[in-house]
Amino acid sequence: MTQEQWGEIRQRLLKTVGQNNYTTWIEPMEPGGVANGIATLEVPTNFFGNYVSQNFSDLILHEINAEGITASRLNFVLNGQRNKTANPQPEAPRKTAVVARTTSNGIAGTAPLDPRFSFDNFVVGKPNELAHAAARRVAEGGPVTFNPLFLYGGVGLGKTHLMHAIAQELKLRKPEMNVLYLSAEQFMYRFVQALRDRKMMDFKELFRSVDVLMVDDVQFIAGKDSTQEEFFHTFNALVDQHKQIIISADRAPTDIKDLENRVKSRLQCGLVVDLHPTDYELRLGILQSKLGMQKKTYPDLQIEDGVLEFLAHRITSNVRELEGALTRLFAFASLVGRQIDMDLTQDCLADVLRSNERKITVEEIQRKVSEHYNIRLSDMIGPKRLRSYARPRQVAMYLSKQMTSRSLPEIGRRFGGRDHTTVMHGVRRIEELKQSDSQIAEDLELLSRALKS
Ligand SMILES: Nc1ncnc2c1ncn2[C@@H]1O[C@H](COP(=O)(O)OP(=O)(O)OP(=O)(O)O)[C@@H](O)[C@H]1O
Question: What region holds the Chromosomal replication initiator DnaA C-terminal domain (predicted)?
Fold first, then answer.
């Protein structure tokens, strides 16, 4: 793809994604080649590539094809890594802030900080309140009370956001502090580079001279023995000097496989806090806060009441996907010139909604029903025929038939190896009672709502 073609494509993208998105996400990319239906774009960071891929790839592909270039997929490579040897290019100037002070030892430079990942933009709810409070405390830059702060949680739950927020806040409050933020992958890359260039002294000096070291996605160094070793020494040197360390990972230190025990135990010796999966209220709060940004980009678009609630209810996997869905919805609506209502939402996000469909299991149903009727799970599954066990059992069988794709024999097996005719009888009995017994009807309603949430 030539610069000229990319220029045309960019101009059209500006109209569809809006000025803000354009400046942040489209403008920094450089065009690469197109081969076998794959168009390559150069991006400044992996994070950047992931974000663009999740939020704008459909639109970009659409415009690339509109330019007469045939491509069905996009491939993102880091700036300057395409044809590195054949076509050496100077590193593109970074547009976002770099935290660490520049040094002259040839191995300085850190990950860019995303200005949107601030404390102000972080929505706090029950699942993340502890992690948020700990991050806030560390960002005050006061005396080191827990070292390290170890933040962990599943994909897209806000670990990187909190790390960037801490770094940016520290930069504001304590500009004299030397704060180094980087991913574990970059740590390894720098270590290998220093070894190769015989600059280990510089490497050690750089890492041991920081006031705050922040390493994102530390699980990456699992299984990489020499990097772990170096990380361990860096860690110890900084802790000895009472310098703050902040680490993030996708799981707790004890659960990171192939990480040496001494590293694990070091990582656990401060404060370990986790970001729990989001709940409905948090998801809705996040959507409401992100709505403001979209409205700035697309001031003419209206969003129908109930759409945000619908998304918060249905997209439960992670915040990144939730955010991506909102961005996509606005971009799509603006592209097709429609307002955002339920129909458009279902059309535009069919794939995301499908992949988020929650699979309810028979075991979950059994657990919820036994809690509801206050009986033991073992009594529900066991052989006792007492009415106080038999009725909840039939309710659970009925819900298993309605809410899962399990067959009657499969359900029977999960209820202590009962025959499929027993399950069928139970299901029919509850179907009858649902019509004649308002208490049972109410129980079913309550239980199915609780299971779906
Ligand atoms: N509580 C929150 N408030 C506002 N935005 C959030 C919140 N949690 C996550 N996000 C947003 O969700 C997206 C994903 O978050 P982030 O990159 O921090 O996830 P992560 O936990 O680091 O994921 P990964 O494991 O993939 O690195 C970001 O755009 C971030 O701003």
Answer: 361-430
